[in-house]
Amino acid sequence: MRQDFDAIIIGAGQAGPSLAGRLTQAGWTVAMVERKLFGGTCVNVGCTPTKAMVASAHAAHIARRGSDFGVVRKEPVVVDMKQVLARKNAIVMKSRTGVEGWLRGMERCTVFTGAARFESPKEIRVGDQVLYAKNIFLNVGARPSIPDMPGVREVPFLTSTTILDLEELPKHLIVVGGSYVGLEFAQMYRRFGAEVTVVERKSRLIPNEDEDLSSAVQEILQSEGIQLRLDANCIRLENDGGEVAVGLDCLEGHPQVVGSRILLAAGRRPNTDDLGLTAAGVKANEHGYITVDDQLQTSVPGIWAIGDCNGRGAFTHTSYNDFEIVADNLLDKASRRVSDRIPVSALYIDPPLAQVGLTETQVRQSGRAALIGTRPMTKIGRAVEKGETQGFMKVLVDAENKKILGAAILGTGGDEAIHCILSTMYAGAPYTTLSHAVHIHPTVSELIPTMLQSIKPLDTSVK
Ligand SMILES: Cc1cc2nc3c(=O)[nH]c(=O)nc-3n(C[C@H](O)[C@H](O)[C@H](O)COP(=O)(O)OP(=O)(O)OC[C@H]3O[C@@H](n4cnc5c(N)ncnc54)[C@H](O)[C@@H]3O)c2cc1C
Ligand SMILES: NC(=O)c1ccc[n+]([C@@H]2O[C@H](COP(=O)([O-])OP(=O)(O)OC[C@H]3O[C@@H](n4cnc5c(N)ncnc54)[C@H](O)[C@@H]3O)[C@@H](O)[C@H]2O)c1
């Protein structure tokens, strides 16, 4: 028998549960469908577990550096992976059960567990049940993509999901992919005590970021003993006796890296292939990302796509912002748009790399007249006092209207400090609002006004 609701939400990730909360508060009846773990990627196999493990890795790193701070250590640092995992699991479980309990206790919300699939533009099948609603919200997220490289069907490999359950420390972890997922795990496992090699097919790590940031990140990772194989072509997985290996053609170095485990960290793909999109007439692009307009409506009226599956963001904060846009537009008659969002993100290596707005490369390519300011972390008192002076910060300003175009902070506390720049940008204020503001001493943020006071013309002839 068909069950009718005002709305069906597919996926209890970073947007779905909050949307269920807003809609039910407004009096709507909601069917929430989740096929696996409540809280989705971020809570279960993304942000929460990785940042919990990054914290364990940081503790090991600081313990090893004890003598830099006058702390005497008589024994070598030993990391107990079982305890690291137990701590991580406890944090994850609390969050997951919190989301599930919230949804199950929500008035006017009915939770269905199982895989949802379109039967028609207004009907969804979950097992042997058919749900009907005039409004359907897709929050189905993404999963690790497995590149179709030679050997991938014969050689065992880990993904960002399966590595989270690895109880033993691999002697040598080979990470394929040198971006967000790959670098967070690479540094974490190096600090846990593994040998680590990162294999990246482009000529530099985090290839989408500015070159100076790539070089500085590379230097930080190499200083901890992480091996890099860049410009790696023809990557293939191989069994090598009891070991695993990655074969590659790099511009230099041995054509094979032998290790004990391989982590594939080469991007993600949306969970849209088994949703039955064609039964509803919902359009997706060639990579499976659902096509949406600036207010997250799909090609079919009454169906929205929010979070990673629409390809307009790939972060928890962008998924949550999608929820806010859709909810405010539907319930408060607002006209919020995705294009109002200022890009912002942090790569959680240590120290973190936080970025907002345009990169320096994008500013150069835009051809507009701009100003740039930079500051090494060695010149920031707080960083010196903490003994964490790696990295630098930079900011770009529009030379005509004096508004901040973008900024990056690679350094201790950068993920927090970037927010004063972000808020100034949202306020639409000129950079002088921030450069005249008095900040707390001693903080990393206090050097942002100082950096802004010394901005100089950017040479845009260099693209
Ligand atoms: C290792 C790693 C670390 C990360 N760290 C960060 C970080 O530090 N900061 C950050 O901002 N982002 C981080 N991310 C990205 C972040 O996790 C995602 O951007 C975010 O979770 C996307 O949320 P979402 O709501 O779009 O989808 P998801 O959280 O992926 O949720 C989608 C849900 O839909 C369910 N689902 C899918 N298909 C169906 C179906 N047919 N029927 C029913 N249910 C279905 C899934 O089971 C899942 O629960 C990380 C990602 C990874 C992999
Ligand atoms: N701190 C965070 O916010 C955080 C952390 C982890 C993941 N994430 C999200 O997850 C997304 C996915 O991260 P990701 O690092 O898996 O993907 P990505 O797309 O950001 O990077 C993939 C990397 O792998 C390389 N690559 C691709 N195919 C390859 C191949 N065959 N051989 C060698 N290298 C190859 C690419 O050049 C690139 O450097 C990110 O875009 C981000 O949005 C966010």
TrEMBL record:
Claim: Flavoprotein is one of the keywords in the record: yes
InterPro entries found in the cross-reference section: FAD/NAD-bd_sf, FAD/NAD-binding_dom, FAD/NAD-linked_Rdtase_dimer_sf, Pyr_nuc-diS_OxRdtase, Pyr_nucl-diS_OxRdtase_dimer
Sequence ranges assigned to domain FAD/NAD(P)-binding in this UniProt record: 6-319
Disulfide pattern: C42-C47
Pfam families: Pyr_redox_2, Pyr_redox_dim
Active-site residue list: H441 (proton acceptor)
Amino-acid positions noted as binding NAD(+) in the UniProt annotation, renumbered to this chain: G177, G178, S179, Y180, V181, G182, L183, E184, E200, G267
Keywords: FAD, Flavoprotein, NAD, Nucleotide-binding, Oxidoreductase
Coiled coil (UniProt feature): none
Domain called Pyridine nucleotide-disulphide oxidoreductase dimerisation: residue spans: 346-451
One GO MF term: flavin adenine dinucleotide binding
Cofactor(s), by name: FAD
Record note on cofactor: Binds 1 FAD per subunit.
Chain positions recorded as FAD binding sites: K51, D308
Entry-linked PANTHER family: MERCURIC REDUCTASE (PTHR43014:SF2)
Protein family (similarity comment): Belongs to the class-I pyridine nucleotide-disulfide oxidoreductase family.
Protein name, entry field: FAD-containing oxidoreductase
Organism: Tunturiibacter psychrotolerans
